[in-house]
Amino acid sequence: MGKTTGAKREGHHGSGCNDMNLARSTGKDGSPSDGDSERLKKKGTLAMLAASLCFSTGGVLIKLIPWGPLAINGVRNLIAACVIGIYMAVLRHRIRLAPAVWLGALCMAGVTTAFTMATKLTTAGNAIVLQYTAPVWILLFMAMFYGRKPGRHEIASVAIVLAGIFCFVCDSLSTGRYLGDLLGLLSGLFYAGVFMLNQFEGGDALSSMFLGQLSCGILLSPFAFMETDFSPKVMAAVFILGAVQVGMAYIFFSIGTRHTGPITAAIINAVEPILNPVLVAVFYGEGLGIFSLAGAMIVIGGILFYNLSGRVRSGVSQ
């Protein structure tokens, strides 16, 4: 994987609509103007927040569905692939089949499968906070493969976020569900790759998402034939899980990661590990302890620190 420029990566999202948007957002020298750059960053931030809200429904929906994790992940990804496919058709976005796209598809399939299994085998809080070790892996991968040294504010922000996540872990590792915790950690490794889809040379985020979801759907959805509960409530939860929690979430995600860097996107997406266990606590009765509540506040603090420090640095540079 070599170093790629932002212009090259943007070109991989090759619809005419995107080219027009890119032309409108550049100055005479071809670079984005300050106003347009700020607007695109704001768009990316809002898209990542929308993605986080959609992602956050995963814990409570997975807990609600009395199926095995492989069956759940297969059917939800099949539905999500349909949603992403329709979105790509509307944009006239062609599927790319480059090696980097397949690497991204592997990350996509890995994160959804590992997270679903982890949520079934451990608490929803454990599964999501262990998945959220992704920012650490991103810092490591960006340094190893792209030679990008993280700034002090990035390291500090990730450290604050991880401190908050550690509070969640302290509250729930006592369950002894180590296999689920290990799968949650593995999902974090794959999740880092998902955040970096637009960084891969020859990569295309939407193609990777579609192919990863379609592959999971084809391979794992047959496990659903082994299930027995197909009540309207269960099927409605499965549909929402696929269409909203995966499909719509990754559409917002693809927009967000296009206009923000992988570390920025990962830190903004820290809203998910707060809302996910909270929703499970409210609707499923899986309680939050005092450490989890403290962790939520620390994670929010880390997000605010990152965004505020970014604004301060931007103001100084101007």
Report the uncertain regions: 1-29
Write down the overall geometry: globular
Q: What structural category characterises the helix and strand content?
A: mainly alpha
User: If you average the pLDDT, what whole number results?
Assistant: 79
Report the end-to-end length measured between terminal Cα atoms.
Answer: 33 Å
Give the topology string: H per helix, E per strand: HHHHHHHHHHHHHHH
Percent helix: over 70%
Number of E-state strands = 0
| Radius of gyration (Å) | 19 Å
Major sheet:
none
Tell me the number of helical segments per DSSP (H or I, 4 or more residues long). Answer: 15
Please state roughly what percent of the residues sit in beta strands, choosing from under 5%, 5-15%, 15-25%, 25-35%, 35-45% or over 45%.
Answer: under 5%
Q: Can you describe what's shown?
A:
- The protein is 76% helix and 0% strand.
- The protein contains 15 helices and no strands.
- The model is unreliable at 1-29 (pLDDT under 50).
